[in-house]
Amino acid sequence: MLRRTFLSILLLAGALGAGSGPRLVTAVDSIGITVSDLDRSVDFYTNVLSFRKVSEFETDGDQIEHLEGVFGLRLRRARLRLGDEFLELTEFLAPKGRSVPLDSRSNDRWFQHVALIVSDMDRAYNWLREHKVQHASPGPQRLPDWNKNAGGIQAFYFRDPDGHALEVLAFPMDKGNPKWHRATDDLFLGIDHTAIVISNTEASLKFYRDVLGLEVAGESENYGPEQERLNIVFGARLHITALRAATGPGIEFLEYLAPRDGRPYPADEKSNDLIHWQTNFAGIDSEQAAGGLRNAGSAMISTGVVELPDRKSGFRKAVKARDPDGHAVAIVEK
After folding, report:
1. Do residues 98 and 42 lie in contact, with contact meaning Cβ atoms separated by under 8 Å?
2. Which residues span the domain enclosing 112?
3. Is residue 73 a part of any domain in this protein?
4. How far apart are CA 332 and CA 307, in angstroms?
5. Rounded to an integer, what distance in angstroms lies between the CA atom of residue 251 and that of residue 246?
6. For the chain, is the Cβ count within 10 Å smaller at the N or the C terminus?
7. 118 vs 29, 124, 155, 292, CA distance in Å?
8. pLDDT tens over the chain, length 334 residues
9. Residue 287: which residues within 8 A CB-CB, separation 6 or more?
10. What does the alpha-carbon distance between residue 50 and residue 82 come to, in Å, rounded to a whole number?
11. From CA 308, how far away is CA 320, in angstroms rounded?
């Protein structure tokens, strides 16, 4: 599902479009995932995937309830680092949310994942097998040479302990950001992007490019048996668009041209449900960001701009909303 994913990164020089108007965000700060057991997840991401925990805190109270849109909550959150990129894992001690549906598919619109770059796919796959990760793909897929932008890229989907989809990617020497080719003994190098399933590319561009201010880095149409096996979606044909901020992981749109039977994001999804992912953006002015989101007709998760009483979270103010398909985004002011 990510041939373009791969592409996206490689095409950083050829931006196909840019937002108009003021930029609401300056960087992709981190990718957030709701988990059921923080200790178990931190153990998995640090010991299996080589992330490093940089902070952890526990909190409750009115302000965090207004930010997360969940009443009566108490949560624990850990910030992890791999290379230059960050992941945030959140466990809701109360109230507990719903599990990831067992029949989730890669073309359902609540699908989101992060793509981790590895220095050697064979080593990475063997390592993941040793640690008995759950397969989401039958095995690593090598993208075909007819796709000039993605040929030779290797990819494999698997799941974390809660069933969240993850991907490992390995680039041939002529593809990918140059930083992924630095000499190193490390196996897991960093987060290249987060991918989200969308229903309409133009609608998503209006949000991420025109409202938030990201820039398009590339696009492609991907199909064929390798793509089908990677996604486990028979007949998969995807329009993939890659966007980037100045720093941080990229955002990749996955629009399924076929099949068109992916299910919509649940209207009653909450931040404590385990299908909840969010992309955390750094912004300059949270009030301006909130106004821009409202003017764009975004569904709000927070009650507005929320100012937190302490710096446990690493920021002073934040606003949370949904993109056109329901994926959560947070804009934080540090």
Report:
1. no
2. 1-27+108-269+280-334
3. no
4. 10
5. 12
6. C
7. 21, 7, 10, 37
8. 444 433 433 333 333 344 445 689 999 999 999 999 999 999 999 999 999 999 999 999 999 999 999 999 999 999 999 999 999 999 999 999 999 999 999 999 999 999 999 999 999 999 999 999 999 999 999 988 887 777 788 999 999 999 999 999 999 888 888 999 999 999 999 999 999 999 999 999 999 999 999 999 988 888 999 999 999 999 999 999 999 999 999 999 999 999 999 999 999 999 999 999 999 999 989 999 999 999 999 999 999 999 988 778 888 999 999 999 999 999 999 8
9. 305
10. 7
11. 13
Please state the domain count of the chain.
1
Length of the chain equals 334
Helix or strand run (H / E) with residue 215: strand 215-223
Could you give the CA distance from residue 126 to residue 111 in angstroms, rounded to a whole number?
26
Identity of the residue numbered 70: V
Strands 154-159 and 141-142: antiparallel
Q: Whole-angstrom Cα distance, residue 301 to residue 18?
A: 26
Q: Which residues of 8-22 are buried (b: 16+ CB within 10 A; e: fewer)?
A: bbbbbeeeeeebeee
Residue with tokens 């003994």: 185
Q: Whole-angstrom Cα distance, residue 312 to residue 11?
A: 37
Q: How far apart are CA 35 and CA 163, in angstroms?
A: 10
- CA-based angle 65:66:69, to the nearest 5? 75
Looking up residue 140, the CATH number of its domain turns out to be: 3.10.180.10
Q: Phi/psi zone of residue 161: left (φ > 0), alpha (ψ -120 to 50 degrees), beta? A: alpha
